[in-house]
Amino acid sequence: MTVLVAGATGSIGKEVTAALLARGAAVRALVRSHGRAALLPAGAEPVVGDLRNAASVAAALHGVTAALYVSPHDADEELMAEHFVAACERLGVRLVFAGVAMTGQNPVVRWCIQAMVSTFLPHYKGKLRIARRVATAGRTRPVVFSVANYYQNDELVRDEILGGQYPLPAHRAGINRIDLRDVGEVVARAMTDPGFPSGAHGLVGPASISGAGSARIWADVLGRPVRYTGDRLDWQDLLADRLHGAKLADYRRSYGFLAKHGLPTPARELAATAALLGRPPRAYETYVRDMAERWCAPRRS
Description:
Layout: E1 2-6, H1 11-22, E2 26-31, H2 34-37, E3 44-48, H3 54-61, E4 66-69, H4 77-91, E5 94-99, H5 107-120, H6 125-135, E6 143-147, E7 149-150, H7 158-162, E8 165-166, E9 175-178, H8 180-192, E10 199-203, E11 208-209, H9 211-222, E12 227-228, H10 235-242, H11 245-260, H12 267-277, H13 284-296
Parallel strand pairs: 1-2, 1-4, 2-3, 4-5, 5-6, 6-10, 7-9, 8-12
Antiparallel strand pairs: 9-11
């Protein structure tokens, strides 16, 4: 089968692409430029297109059996999503979404989440509307994955961590975090297994981790002190050095929320994530050890 990944060079998309290739799927990657196409792994077929252009989206989807959509940080995100979803409906392509979504079955819980988003995270309203649009997309047998905050955000502050600081803010009660490699495995299965059930699934990591807790784990693995500095405001300047535009704005507001509020680990979603993986989700310590080995490996001349 041939599958399409929109945003294959992004944080979620690249892990899904890797998992699909490992499964032997023929992967078509929709990218916005030839420069982005050069970042794709061997085996992925690049298709250059613009999500704002309905015709180019339809052309990219022609002949595929399933497609992943990850909403970009963009002012036109709902228009872009509509082009993608509508094309999947017309062509009968299975549509899989990963990102910000509500997956709770209890209507009271859903109302509380909507109220929280409206109050504290209004920039997510468009993304929630996109997730609802995907969930009701007719012929596509849609699958919607809500993804927790992910370990890979640490890679934004690699130099600071290696320099002895952990600057990403997180409430002392901890926030649930997940390894995107786990997300990639589950999403790839949804795209390649015709029997994967439609519906909404929350993907979470094994525990909620505080900023200070993250610093301690990095210190233990690196074997040298790493201080938590996320209670200072200069984390916003660090993000501004690495991100731009709508993505920078979204990250600043999101981490501003995470600095003030904890995000618990829901037992039901943790059990569901483990069932989808066929194993417990990776621990944060495992990710940190893998990244420390990569970051600290001696460079070959």
